[in-house]
Amino acid sequence: MPLETYVGAIDQGTTGTRFMVFDHGGTVVTEAYETHEQIYPEPGWVEHDPLEIWENTQSVVQSALETAGLDADQLAAIGVTNQRETTLLWDRDTGKPVHNAIVWQDRRTTDRVEQLEQEGKTEAIRAKTGLEADAYFSATKAEWLLENADPIKTRRARPADLRDRAADGEILFGTVDSWLVYNLTGNHVTDVTNASRTMLFDIHEMDWDRGLLAEFGVPEACLPEVRPSSDEEYYGTTDPESFLDAEIPVAGALGDQQAALFGQTCFDAGDAKNTYGTGSFFLMNTGNKAVDSDHGLLTTVGFQRSGEPVQYALEGAIFVTGAAIEWLEDMTLIEDAAESETLARSVDSTDGVYVVPAFTGLGAPHWDQRARGTIVGMTRGTRRGHVVRATLESVAYQTRDVAEAMIADSGIEMNRLKVDGGAVKNNFLCQLQADIIGAEIVRPEVDETTALGSAYAAGLAVGYWDDLEELRNNWRVDREFDSEMDEDEADAKYDRWAEAVERSRDWATDSDS
Ligand code: ADP
After folding, report:
1. Bridge partners of residue 96, in order along the sequence
2. 274 in ligand 1 pocket by Cβ < 6 Å?
3. Of 22, 257, 404, 499, which is least surrounded by CB within 10 A?
4. Are the C-beta atoms of 10 and 32 separated by less than 8 Å?
5. pTM
6. 321 CA distance to ligand 1 centroid (A)?
7. What would the pLDDT profile of 328-359 be if each residue is shown by its tens digit?
């Protein structure tokens, strides 16, 4: 009897790299994880060593297979999901990076973005890319690398600089998916979702934008070929000579948040998911229509399957959600994150207290860099439990802020929200979210939706799974939370939240540290 087959997912995140193997039912069979070094060369700069990431990738793949006693050729396909926007350049012939990767969090190019603002170019950038011009995205990082990153230059006999070599196709640009797929298969490709985060890609034309390439001085010859997220032609196959001793199709890739959308089987317009980690990422599938936002949301590519139209998404980022729970721990109001639930339940209400965790300003839909953390409504009777409960409530209110913006922008009603991420273990938070948002909150059994999404993309491409229906059937509910609060009561509380947000706004001055 032939051996059972599976699909592997490489989940390359900001802090570490995970390999997970899934069976037909979408259940995790084995996994392994390794962290990598965070390099901070200067304040506000964040880099990763791409070779370390590639070595860790090989090692987690091998160790996960070994743990479960699986042969590499039992993998029907491999999918990739990755930290988005992180950018690197490497030498096509040697395969060596010319510099560390510049991580999405890195702020070294903020001046360049301010220059774009002053030159009045940001509207045009948003119209083409769906993105709010920012140093997060790859474009200014690639520009910086092409200008500053040639340690080899001084040693080269040939006078050509890095940009010339990139124009000759000798130096290649890529995000982390592209780097891993290149190492796995030898092919220089990226998927549509990762391309959509570069700020070099026109999401309407679905092609690199010549005007933006010229603006940032990125030669077309160094760019990867853009392919569907789930690609029946495969990005390539692994080379048995160099790795794994087997020829495995690498056939799917998605940026991490889009992978979670796919893993949550949000395949249709109106399907939405929110991931509650340190911050939160709320994505709503808007179907084949790229919806422009009037409320500070990003328009981005959700996913694309071979031969099918692109599915777009609206995306809202909330900076501080789980991090507010970490703050409660730092303040010794709770011992660990789980205690937030017990303490919140120990009181009937927040007793009128509202916490706005605008520690680093407010993101979508408020966009106020000068907002700061605020607690309002305290009395002499305010207790620990009230503040803790109000902090959990702030996670739910911030999510409603983004949900309302999505509904206003898209005109699509949202009856259900699928949730994942570290904080959804908290049942109190999930129930509260259902109450505040007035929609059903659904938590799946497999919470590693990011890895699952990329496995699904790769597995669909090779026919391991037949169709989306099979994946929908795989998706199993762990628990559903129905809205129990009276709508008027929820609206009244939410209105008070809006007032608390007003108090937090425009607080920091230039003299504040
Ligand atoms: P990330 O991927 O951003 O590192 P995770 O998805 O691992 O984050 O989630 C970690 C976050 O979830 C932390 O900020 C933590 O405070 C929060 N968290 C974990 N458990 C709970 C809980 N029971 N209640 C509320 N928040 C929690």
Report:
1. none
2. no
3. 499
4. no
5. 0.90
6. 8
7. 999 999 999 999 999 999 999 999 999 999 98
d(CA 368, ligand 1 centre) in Å: 24
Q: Is 413 helix (H, G, I), strand (E, B) or coil?
A: coil
In this structure, the residue with its CA closest to atom 26 of ligand 1 is 423
pLDDT tens digits, 241-257: 888 889 999 999 999 99
pLDDT per residue rounded down to tens, the chain (513 residues): 567 999 999 999 988 999 999 999 999 999 999 999 999 998 889 999 999 999 999 999 999 999 999 999 999 999 999 999 999 999 999 999 999 999 998 889 989 999 999 999 999 999 999 998 888 899 999 999 999 986 554 455 444 689 989 999 999 999 999 999 999 999 999 999 999 999 999 999 999 999 999 999 999 999 999 999 999 999 999 998 888 889 999 999 999 999 999 999 999 999 999 999 888 999 999 999 999 998 889 999 999 999 999 999 999 988 889 999 999 999 999 999 999 999 999 999 999 999 999 988 888 888 887 889 999 999 999 999 999 999 999 999 999 999 999 999 988 888 899 999 989 999 999 999 999 999 999 999 878 899 999 999 999 999 999 999 999 998 888 999 999 999 999 999 999 999 999 999 999 887 664
Distance in angstroms (rounded) separating the CA atoms of residues 189 and 313: 22
Cα–Cα distances (Å) from 103 to 41, 166, 354, 455, in that order, read 12, 21, 34, 24
CA 495, 497, 500, 502 torsion-angle sign: negative
3-state secondary structure 195-255: HCCCCCEECCCCEECHHHHHHHCCCHHHCCEEECCECCCCCEECCCCCCCCCCCEEEEEEE
What is the C-alpha to C-alpha distance for residues 184 and 411, in angstroms, rounded to an integer? 42
Residue 354, classed as helix, strand or coil, is strand
Bridging pattern class, strands 416-420 and 440-444: parallel
Q: Which of 426, 428, 429, 443 to mutate to test the pocket of ligand 1 (most atoms within 8 A of CB)?
A: 426
295 CA distance to ligand 1 middle (Å): 27
Query: Whose CA is closest to 409, among 327, 334, 300?
Result: 300
- What would the DSSP string read from start to end of 67-89? HHT--GGGEEEEEEEE-SS-EEE
For the chain, the farthest-separated pair of C-alpha atoms sits apart, in whole angstroms, at 75
SS3 state of residue 375: strand
| Ligand 1 touching residue 326 (CB < 6 A) | yes
Atom 14 of ligand 1 has which residue's CA nearest to it?
A: 322
| Ligand 1 near 421 CB (within 6 A) | yes
Contact, 134 vs 197, CB < 8 A? no
Pocket flag, ligand 1, residue 425 (CB < 6 Å): yes
By alpha-carbon position, which residue is closest to atom 9 of ligand 1?
A: 422
Please state, in angstroms and rounded to a whole number, the distance separating the CA atoms of residues 174 and 224.
Answer: 7
